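Researcher: Re-running this chain for the archive, since the previous output was lost when a drive failed. Same request as before.
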Amino acid sequence: MKSNMANAHLTNAKRAKNDEFYTQYDDIQKEIEAYVEYDPDVFKGKVIYCNCDDPFESNFVKFFANRFNGYGIKKLVATSYVGSPIAQTELQFSIPGEIRRKKELPEKKRKKAFKIEINEVSDLTKDGVINLDDVKYLLKHDKNASSLLHGDEKYTAGDFRSKECVELLRRSDIVVTNPPFSLFREYVKQLFDYNKKFVIIGNMNAITYKEIFPLIKNNKLWLGNGFNAGNAYFFTPNTRDFASGVYDEKTGLVKFRNVCWFTNLDHGRRHQPLPLMTMKENLKYSKHKEVKGKRTYDRYDNYDAIEVPFTDSIPSDYCGVMGVPISFLDKYNPDQFEIVKFRHGDDGKDLRLKDGSCPYFRVVIRHKKRGK
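Model: Regenerated structure tokens:
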């Protein structure tokens, strides 16, 4: 039994190392401010839980600690996996965006997983301003602010599935973090099991998961405000080859284009109408050669719908069902469109055109009826 437990913990530790990506402060600020702009009180009186974050280095923690009083946050909680390469360093709380060499803690302390709970941010340093220096002072001097995590018989200390982390989740209101991509399905399921609001980062491919797309279809989960120009940069302490990211040795950052924010908090961009042309205008003026000059839109062979190869080519005057690229979801306005289904035709197979080709991953939509 002990051997199996040890193997399970080792597997969890390896997975955690491979999922070790740290989000940039500016990206967090841009995303979170979109929710505050839509609802200034969205975080007021709420317990914010960052349950996949190094309590001492996470930019999520830094950001919410900085905005603790401004947003009226009730409590900020953060936990991380044991063995985190970043967590095992001296307290830094450096200026957001600054890259600094870190002094490792003694080996005995490096094996520990920590939790922090911040109930108040005040001018502890007596310098006349309240900032991250006060949070750093708090964590160094208040023994009640940070404590060890222990894990359990099944999960490593700090694992979001461990009993102590689940208990912290139960007592939280909004979860904001960059969870392990390899455990995304399980992570999202837990959030819904405990009926939590959240803002999290995930791989764009997660949209296609059978556990995720129904949530999007039913407007229980949607895409967030988004990264600048669709590019996300993460710091990682584990230099290796990345299947879908580009690593920069000078900055220590990995660039990804296939990640996005997932949330169930509302934001203004979600309600911006998508400007569209009529079908006739698209066929005459579209910038896409696949549309411009054609007599009509292609139809599917195994489903009564038209194929719309580009989001900006959705005809404003078409009343039927349309298959659109999955990238449409980044522009999806639930007040303007209704999601019908995903990908499959009446025969249960991928949507297929008359020529036998199958367009890659189509979301089937229609315009919402006026006055509905």
